[in-house]
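queue> pop job 88
queue> type: inverse folding (structure -> sequence)
queue> payload:
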């Protein structure tokens, strides 16, 4: 397999009140996808998480965000914990039951998607950038600890916010199941990209090319020897 490269990402620190302490010894084992209620570019989301929501009397953040142009921003470092998808009573994600004493924000990586004012909407550049980001996060943060967490890339580990908070966020990210499937397939394609095969060498052609080179070398050497003999004869006269 070829490693997934890190996608271009700009850091926009979230407001301190939008960040919590992440407990030590907890591994990431899922990705949670979100959509906004408006906004189209990453700067708008950066201003919101940077303190706009605090001024409005709210709190909230995600690790990453992707805008309609495919631009990626990071708002909360992976050593910290965003305020993104804490589990509610009635959470349908099995991973919540598997981690009953932990905030879902401590073991899930969260990605926000700006919807441009159309609930659930996503552009092609945005979708592809998010898949790239998701694949890289899986490779770097989830796969190394999969033997401990049991994480296997699939629908139980690539989740929607509504699966953590069905009462307060029943339509986040407002994605149909087909889109989740396409997202996971895209991640898998990046993570399992085959190593390019070496070029096929025509050894017969290489052999004859080498034979021709030897003939040329021999001819050059013979010509050089004759030239040296001529010069020695002239000098000896």
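queue> result:
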């Amino acid at each position: 397999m070829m490693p997934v490269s890190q996608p271009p990402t700009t850091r926009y620190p979230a407001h301190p009140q939008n960040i919590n302490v992440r407990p030590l010894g907890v591994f990431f084992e899922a990705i949670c996808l979100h959509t906004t209620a408006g906004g189209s570019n990453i700067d708008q989301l950066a201003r919101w998480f940077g303190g706009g929501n605090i001024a409005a009397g709210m709190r909230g953040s995600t690790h990453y965000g992707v805008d309609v142009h495919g631009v990626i921003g990071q708002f909360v470092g992976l050593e910290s914990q965003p305020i993104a998808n804490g589990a509610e009573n009635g959470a349908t994600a099995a991973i919540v039951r598997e981690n009953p004493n932990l905030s879902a924000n401590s073991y899930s990586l969260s990605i926000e998607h700006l919807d441009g004012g159309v609930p659930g909407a996503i552009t092609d550049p945005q979708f592809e950038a998010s898949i790239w980001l998701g694949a890289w996060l899986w490779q770097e943060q989830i796969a190394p600890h999969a033997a401990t967490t049991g994480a296997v890339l699939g629908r139980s580990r690539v989740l929607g916010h509504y699966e953590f908070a069905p009462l307060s966020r029943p339509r986040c990210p407002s994605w149909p199941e087909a889109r989740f499937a396409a997202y996971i397939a895209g991640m898998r394609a990046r993570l399992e990209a085959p190593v390019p095969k070496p070029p096929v060498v025509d050894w017969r052609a290489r052999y004859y090319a080498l034979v021709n080179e030897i003939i040329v070398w021999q001819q050059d050497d013979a010509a050089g020897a004759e030239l040296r003999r001529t010069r020695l004869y002239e000098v000896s006269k």
